[in-house]
Fold these 2 entries.
Entry 1:
Amino acid sequence: MKIGLLHTTDAAGPPEDPVLAQLEDALHGRGHETFRAVVTEEVEPLISQLRREAPDLVFNMAEAFGGKSALESNVAALLNLLGLRYTGSSPSGLMVAGDKALTKKILSFHQIKTPQFATVFRGALDSVGDLNFPVIVKPPQEDASLGITAKSVVHDIKQLLEAMDGLQKEFKSPVLVEQYVEGREFYVGVLGNASVTALPVIELDFSKFPSDKPRIASYAAKWGDDGEGAGAEFAGTESVFPTGLDAELAGRMQAVAVEAFEALRLRDYGRIDLRVTDAGEIFVIEVNPNCYLEKSGEFARAAERSGLAYPALIERIVELASARYAR
Ligand SMILES: Nc1ncnc2c1ncn2[C@@H]1O[C@H](COP(=O)(O)OP(=O)(O)O)[C@@H](O)[C@H]1O
Ligand SMILES: [Mg+2]
């Protein structure tokens, strides 16, 4: 098969995403031919290239358009308009999952637990249920923990107003205020379409986290850099296969992940982020369609753990996508 690797450049990030070479290795090993196509802020060269190359399938790893993650779904929409087949979720799946408030509304409809929340934008308040301190304040349409710091978890009105003000200035978008869920954090990868299966559960271990900071995967914890002594947060988080995790709880987490994936009508693969209270209550924090496929990332490691080595995982995604179009 001829497969186009569609990816985004990130001016702020490293020059080349390691996942590209990893995917190429995996796909070449399975006898596929590949080319790279980059999504920038100019759409014409991309359209010409895709028309010229005419791939059998596009491996869609585009996470933004022109640096805007809110435009992610439009890239998939463009592939639809060009009549191309591609891996991962549809524009509507990407759009809904990319909007945390909308995601939560749909999850609630399906009786999947997600923290209570309110959104506020220029005085317009959209809220459901009761909120009590502490709450976490975040931009509803960003990813990779952009805009999430230790100060995002607030305990009183003054801190809340400050956090909201900061976000509104930075992102010029609505602000999401969400019930803070104290507890453990887990990631569950899922694969499939007609029959969706969950991968082994991974935990974000906070046991070495600085005790004076809220236990969240803040920008500093994820990427190790925000200037203010962030190193300790980065060093203090590690994703692990939890030992001694109650099998019943793990099974319930996997079931919730599959339900959330299906509720949002996602396709092929995704990763669901969960928080679990000491009482064993499971809350969906975020649903990530087309999640990051880097070999050492949570999704690929979980797949490997389930017996799907990296090349087999990538081939499975190609097969899942191709099978959708064959119907
Ligand atoms: N309601 C919440 N309760 C507790 N922690 C939360 C909550 N929402 C987010 N977090 C923490 O913040 C991190 C980033 O939030 P998330 O919504 O996943 O944003 P992103 O899309 O940037 O990953 C989560 O991994 C979790 O550690
Ligand atoms: Mg997340």
Entry 2:
Amino acid sequence: MLDFTGQVAIVTGAGNGLGRRYALDLAARGARVVANDIGVGVDGVANDDSPARRVVEEIRAAGGEAVAAEASVASLAGGEAVVAQAVAAFGRLDVLVNNAGIARTNHFTDVRYADVEASLSVHLLGAFHLLLPAWRHFVAQGGGAVVNTTSAVGVFGQQRSSVYAAGKMGVVGLTRVLALEGTAHGVRVNAIAPVAQSRMAADVYGRLNDKLDPAFVSAVVLALAHPSATVTGEVISAGGGRVSRLLLAATEGHFDPSLDDESAAAVLSEVAADERVAAVPSCAMDEIDLIRANYPDLADFRMAPR
Ligand SMILES: NC(=O)c1ccc[n+]([C@@H]2O[C@H](COP(=O)([O-])OP(=O)(O)OC[C@H]3O[C@@H](n4cnc5c(N)ncnc54)[C@H](O)[C@@H]3O)[C@@H](O)[C@H]2O)c1
């Protein structure tokens, strides 16, 4: 059984949906939980709710330990306050689940800049707002685990989701780099791409919705967050009992040492349809090394990971 006794976990957006499930499950397995939420609707507009306090009451009623943190992840001051509250209440921090999210869907012609700012400040900047202060603790402590939240909509695309997708894909880049930097400090960083019933997804999954208990996603988040896990830098899709790795891969492509405008135009469709995986790079230089591999005079040279 996964035991989180002695561990302290922050879950942002813990008042509803997936975050609530993560907070309840982490606490049930012994973690002391900081349940963060400001109580907003799916559109990010305040709705006078106090969901973080309700979740904390649920955790305490079940014999667990938790505190409510009601600062917004959308500001650095809010993120710093949540991290400071974890350390003040429980003396340490081991797990950060960046889960808070909002959704404002619109065709790009109807996107307002206010929506761009609101969405990115929760999803992408929100992750930074928690990670900047949390990272210092993890490094000083010599370890920690981060689960960021991305989405298939960000990785693969979906109409009316430009702003949401940009934030969620930004989270993937952040996850990959922090995983690389975190290894030296014992800090693991992964991203979950959840598929679950929630108020945010109320109209999305049709008849599949009944299969999408948030508990399926929570099981994977706890596995990623547990100190026994070794996985880092991955984007894991989870929902309805299915778990899979979303591959960030480079294809075989086309090599021509005398490529020019005409030949590039001639091969473009073929390159764009290529599904032959040449490599699953661990970092950018692994992908760039695929160019080097075509030049026989560079056979004794490698692009070094950085
Ligand atoms: N449900 C899905 O299928 C699905 C799919 C892909 C990604 N996601 C992502 O998973 C996460 C959880 O989504 P959910 O479906 O549980 O949605 P939800 O709307 O049920 O819960 C989101 C929670 O985040 C909170 N929140 C929003 N802005 C906040 C802020 N500034 N500070 C603190 N809390 C804030 C909300 O009050 C809410 O309680 C989101 O990041 C979402 O984008 C969900």
